[in-house]
Specification:
There is one protein chain. The protein is of the alpha+beta class. It is 23% helix and 23% strand. It has one domain. The strands form two sheets. Strands 1, 2, 3, 4 and 5 form a five-stranded mixed beta sheet that branches. A two-stranded antiparallel sheet has the order 6-7.
């Protein structure tokens, strides 16, 4: 019989509030082509899935808007600086959470802890991200759990900190120990259509 995961009742509330505050926010900053350094021009925008939150009685998908740019020199289409790691389908802060928790417990238990925080994820996803070689992020104890600074930093932004649809810069992830300027999260060439969950 699996033991119930006990978390401080305030912990899922603050974690969910921090993540929910990103819903619908726009990421539009990119200085130059990440491949050749060439000048870029606006290409399009994509609504990108961040994570699903388990709210009372219903699950809520969180999306952010990411602008994409086309390089005038090499033609590469690249996304703006946004809180995603290369080739991932969920937000970087949640990937950090998977990696951090799996350092101290099994992927199955880590998934149960993440679920107890009100984030919908399965153990296969935790295992996937914890085994892909992502660097272990800075972490600190928070309400009795060792959690990545990146996800804790989201709790600093109180509801209403960002206006709906606001252009979000590095301030939404700089407290996580990421660079405040430049490409805060590295990218590989864009995935083929159908390999990321967009609308």
């Amino acid at each position: 019989m699996k033991r119930k995961i006990l978390v401080h009742p305030m912990l899922p509330t603050v974690i969910q509030a921090g993540i929910a505050n990103l819903d619908g926010q726009s990421y539009t900053s990119l200085d130059a082509c990440p491949s050749c350094g060439g000048d870029i021009a606006g290409y399009d925008t994509k609504k990108r899935f961040f994570i699903t939150l388990a709210e009372p009685g219903v699950n809520r998908d969180i999306f952010v808007i990411v602008r994409r740019f086309s390089c005038r020199v090499c033609g590469l289409v690249s996304p703006a600086n946004a809180p995603f790691y290369p080739d991932t389908r969920i937000g970087a802060q949640v990937v950090d959470l998977c990696v951090t928790l799996s350092q101290e417990m099994s992927c199955s238990r880590a998934a149960r802890v993440i679920n107890a925080l009100g984030i919908v994820i399965d153990r296969g996803t935790v295992r996937n991200y914890s085994s892909r070689g992502f660097a272990v992020p800075p972490a600190t104890e928070f309400f009795g759990f060792l959690l990545p600074v990146s996800i804790i930093s989201l709790t600093m932004f109180t509801p209403g900190y960002f206006q709906p649809g606001a252009v979000v810069g590095a301030e939404s992830f700089a407290p996580a120990g990421r660079p405040a300027t430049g490409r805060a999260f590295p990218y590989s060439p864009p995935l083929e259509e159908g390999h990321e969950r967009d609308e």
